[in-house]
């Protein structure tokens, strides 16, 4: 019980620090829905599904959000300039314990008129502020592009690598491949097996991912990479940020590709969020956004090693 009480006070300290940091930079805190018709169509994610029913007999397929991203971008399209939310998000097929929990808290924030490099600066400043709130120092945080990491660690030129080049690299480095692998699959395997393990004892902002890993980010001028970054702290992935894609035509194309991948893998395909596409063109270019795992940040800032140490009601405790 004492552990739970300490955790609750620690979370208040962190939430107060986050809110004070963002409000000092003129952000507006917003609330977004947790249950929506289009929760996420990212192929690697599995939303919790439900049915919304009305007394009149209406029945609607819905899901719990894996991120507030769609709603936040709609608010940008409506004219909001700097916004953040601290919200619960939900992801099915997640492990219990360690650094995973199917329900977790996410900080997501956006600024119109600035790119991912400005977001990296702000992310680093925020993390340092949270650590200081617990009497700790965040330490050195490196910055490296993904192409640089691939070239230095496994001798792969991502700017010019074909699918066959990635297959050859997997074979050379004894990384498992499958006949159904896409370029994205091959890249991710190489990243997971040969690149990510080097982050264990480092704090590093990794940026500029190949276009097939661009997610909802804007592409670089040469069209080969997405303006996306992630922060790894002692090997723990802490956030995923972007210079946001604001082209509704390109966004629809990516949504269509993701829906196709979901269908082929047997996952539920949710409808494309047309309201988001309609509002996207009104978002300024550049704009940045970032999604940060609050529970993981609290775990790291307090020197804990598992989310169970910072969650009073972890899934492992709820569903034992």
Automatic annotation (TrEMBL):
Q: In this protein, which residues make up the domain named Aminoacyl-transfer RNA synthetases class-II family profile?
A: 11-312
Gene3D superfamilies noted in UniProt: Bira Bifunctional Protein, Domain 2
* UniProt key word Ligase: yes
Q: Which domain of life is it from?
A: Bacteria
GO terms for CC?
A: cytosol
- What does the record give under GO molecular function? ATP binding; lysine-tRNA ligase activity; tRNA binding
Q: Enumerate the PANTHER family for this protein.
A: ELONGATION FACTOR P--(R)-BETA-LYSINE LIGASE, LYSYL-TRNA SYNTHETASE
Keyword vocabulary terms for this entry: ATP-binding, Ligase, Nucleotide-binding
Q: Tell me which PROSITE patterns the record gives.
A: AA_TRNA_LIGASE_II
Q: Which GO terms describe its biological process?
A: lysyl-tRNA aminoacylation
- Name of this chain's protein: EF-P lysine aminoacylase GenX
């Amino acid at each position: 019980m004492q552990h739970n009480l300490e955790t609750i006070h620690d979370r208040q300290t962190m939430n107060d620090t986050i809110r004070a940091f963002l409000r000092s930079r003129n952000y507006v805190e917003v609330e977004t829905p947790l249950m929506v018709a289009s929760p996420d169509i990212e192929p690697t994610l599995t939303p919790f599904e439900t049915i919304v029913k009305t007394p009149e007999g209406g029945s609607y397929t819905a899901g719990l959000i894996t991120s507030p991203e769609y709603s936040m971008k709609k608010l940008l399209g409506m004219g909001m300039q700097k916004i953040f939310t601290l919200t619960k998000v939900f992801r099915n097929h997640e492990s219990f314990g360690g650094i995973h929990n199917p329900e977790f808290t996410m900080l997501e924030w956006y600024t119109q008129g600035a790119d991912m490099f400005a977001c990296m600066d702000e992310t680093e400043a925020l993390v340092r502020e949270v650590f200081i709130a617990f009497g700790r120092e965040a330490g050195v945080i490196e910055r490296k592009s993904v192409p640089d990491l691939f070239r230095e660690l496994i001798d792969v030129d991502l700017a010019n690598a074909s699918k066959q080049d990635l297959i050859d690299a997997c074979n050379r480095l004894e990384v498992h491949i499958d006949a159904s692998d896409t370029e994205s699959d091959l890249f991710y395997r190489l990243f997971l097996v040969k690149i990510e393990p080097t982050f264990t004892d480092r704090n590093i902002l990794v940026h500029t991912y190949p276009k097939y890993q661009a997610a909802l980010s804007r592409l670089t001028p040469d069209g080969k990479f997405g303006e996306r970054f992630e922060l790894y702290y002692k090997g723990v992935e802490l956030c995923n940020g972007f210079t946001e894609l604001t082209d509704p035509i390109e966004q629809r194309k990516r949504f269509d590709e993701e829906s196709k991948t979901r269908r082929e893998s047997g996952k539920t395909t949710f409808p494309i969020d047309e309201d988001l596409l309609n509002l996207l063109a009104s978002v300024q270019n550049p704009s940045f956004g970032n999604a940060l795992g609050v529970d993981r940040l609290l775990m790291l800032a307090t020197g804990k090693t598992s989310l169970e140490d910072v969650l009073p009601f972890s899934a492992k405790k709820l569903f034992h």
